[in-house]
Amino acid sequence: MSIQSPQGRYIKVGNINTRFWAAGDKGTAVVLVHGLGGSIENWVYNINALAQYHRVYAMDLVGFGRADKTPLTHDLNVLVRFISDFMKTQGIEKASLAGNSLGGGLVLLFAIEFPEKVEKLVLVNNAGMGRAVICDFKVASLPLIGECLTRPSRKGTARLWKKIVYDSSLVTDELVKEGYGLIAQPGAQKALLATIRAGINLLGQRADLTGPLISKLGKITVPTLVIWGQQDRILPLAHANIAREKIPNARLHVFDHCGHMPQLEHHEEFNKLVLDFLTKQDKVVII
């Protein structure tokens, strides 16, 4: 990507070696959590802008980005604890957490399990608000078929990115090369499929995960900003309304002409919105 990112650093989180970015030396801590198949690069247009006023961190979740790949079937609770353990390595006792897609579902689970560690939440097209999900992921949950569908290729990477974003012109050769390089790493496809199958089956997002999560949203009392893309093909906009209605102190902002990654597709407006929420919550516009 053309924008300059912080220098990648590596650290042991438990027995997992992972890569992370850290930027900013003032204000409260903000932790950015990427989605399924993602990496810290998903926040490249955001971290420096947010770091003008906050101490901002982004880590590769275990199994993704440049983090260690594990042969074990993924447990979403393991990923939640991974976030907590990463925060400990950085001496972060309390933070605002922002998560996109799977990362949004994880920070919700984090807020339920570790409420004392959460200042505010930013949910960006977050998973977990219902069964609906793009058909590609449902089919990928099937044995053997999933292995075929997710076999690393540049064409496959480009095809997926064009479903993620609203404007296909954003899918540059550089973006595809970067995405393919990550999924082509040894163990990356296996980790991706394990995570898909932990949260999704042929009927969609697993009811034994979404049901309990939705039932506990009323326990989340911290200020929460829900952000969604109007034209999201991965998770429907209706899920945004569930989050807004079930979380007591939640506000919703919808970006038009936007898909599954508002932080990339409308990064300037996204950064302003999030900074405004983190510092002057009352100015966030409810749509």
On the 0 to 100 scale, the average pLDDT is 94
Strand content: 15-25%
- Annotated CATH architecture: 3-Layer(aba) Sandwich
CATH fold-type name? Rossmann fold
Distance between the termini: 31 Å
Features:
Rossmann fold; alpha/beta; 287 residues; 8-stranded mixed β-sheet; single chain
Structure description:
With 287 residues, the chain is an alpha/beta fold. The protein has one domain (9-132, 206-283): Alpha/Beta hydrolase fold, catalytic domain (Rossmann fold, 3-Layer(aba) Sandwich), CATH 3.40.50.1820. It is 38% helix and 18% strand. Helix 1 links the parallel strand 3 and strand 4. Residues 281-287 have low confidence and may be disordered.
Structure described in brief:
With 287 residues, the chain is α/β, with parallel strands linked by helices. Helices cover 38% and strands 18% of the residues. The chain has a single domain, classed as 3-Layer(aba) Sandwich (Rossmann fold).
What's the SSE blueprint?
Elements: E1 9-13, E2 16-23, E3 29-33, H1 47-50, E4 55-59, H2 76-89, E5 95-100, H3 102-113, E6 118-124, H4 135-140, H5 145-149, H6 154-164, H7 173-183, H8 188-199, E7 200-201, E8 204-205, H9 207-215, E9 224-229, H10 238-246, E10 250-255, H11 262-265, H12 267-279
Parallel strand pairs: 3-4, 3-5, 5-6, 6-9, 9-10
Antiparallel strand pairs: 1-2, 2-4, 7-8
Helix pairs in contact: 2-3, 6-7
